[in-house]
Write a structure and sequence with these properties.
The complex is a heterodimer of chains A (325) and B (127). Helix content of chain A is 48%, strand content 14%. Chain A is an alpha+beta fold and 325 residues long. In chain A, helix 3 packs parallel to helix 5 and helix 13 packs antiparallel against helix 14. Classes of the chains: A alpha+beta (325), B mainly alpha (127).
Chain lengths: 325, 127
Amino acid sequence: MTRSAPVLAALAVALTGCAASPPLAAGLSAAAPRSIELASTPFFPQEDYQCGPAALATLLVASGVDVTPETVAPEVFIPGRKGSLALELVGAARRHGRLPYVLATTADEMVDALEAGRPVLVLQNYGVSKIPIWHYAVLVGYDADRNVALLRSGDKKRVEMKWQRFAGTWHRGGRFAMTTLHPGEIPAHATPARFIEAAAGLESAGQRPAAAEAYDAAIARWPDEPMAWLGRGNVAYAAGDRQAAADAYVRAIMLAPEDVATRNNLAELLLDAGCLDESRKQIERASNLAQGTALASSVADSRAKIEANAGTVANCKLEDRAWPD
Amino acid sequence: MRVESFRRACVTLMSVSLVSLGMQVPAAANVVGTSEAISASRITDARAVVDATLARADVRAQLAEMGVDQAAIEGRLAALSEDEIASLADQIQGAPAGGDALAVIGIVFIVLLILELTGVIDIFKKA
């Protein structure tokens, strides 16, 4: 699978069949609270087919963004499908400066999120696999002693649903669950790969300050992750801070000397700063590494541009330093 | 006199546009985004690379066809990575679109009825 966005991975799970769900108490870790209810979570009763905008607005308002289902609907609703796609909920959360974090496909992370005070948006399927009835709701708590999930759902502010029924509809819905984080927050059980990919989504969406905040948090927690340094370099470069970008790229290359993207971006930055010899050196290295990879054509474009500048004279505007070999 | 001032205006216009042409020379940096770098590290076969421009155009057209306001489409696409747009292009018709479960409870009833009549389930018990 080449385009493995977390959402796709989550959806693939749905096809693997129906596992019987155990009662909540059986799956709950000993350290987890017996019950949680985020009672202050806002509630927006949904209008026709608008459960996507309503659920998204619930999460965003809970994390301090001033929206309503009506204001987010144009960002996610698809009239022809009478609904909203999970990927677009992810995109819309970015547009409001929040980091959409798609949870793992087990219930543990939902419990973690609730413990941290974050409501969880879930995709449920009230039908069967062949005839699905899709619905978004927001999980705001659970009670293990009474074996129920607590939801904001549809036009009901507080739904108590038997845990197995909730888990079953979530399972048939492809186990999609997400929270919206402030970009500097890292969930307790986050893995570096998933968190950094989520941060990269903010970068793709052009949310530069939010992406920078997320990369900084990632670097503080996992200082040896090259992709976090690449990300920090990219947002610094986009903001015009060549010195900071160069530092971050060099650090990323120290951690992952064969990373094509970082070499390419460093070469671009060096060209931009007038450091032509160093730029050529980096793009040659990138070019050799890129052969047969998805980035080959991108690197070839950079290389052509750098070679076109071969004859020009320029002064390197970056402070003298040892660039990586 | 009039010809002279026209000539002067032309020369001024020409020189201004030449100067601004010169300023455009540093082309936009061809930086590989972090999402792109992460997805490239997963792709082992370069032939599997999706044409991002094509995928974007495809999703744009499909959203418009499904009634999304033209003015809103660009902003929605801009919030997604190239990878995500490519997967949307594939699954926009079939992916789960959460809508209104309550409005279709009737369908559930019909399905249950069919299952009951065909003997798959037995929930409408006679007294």
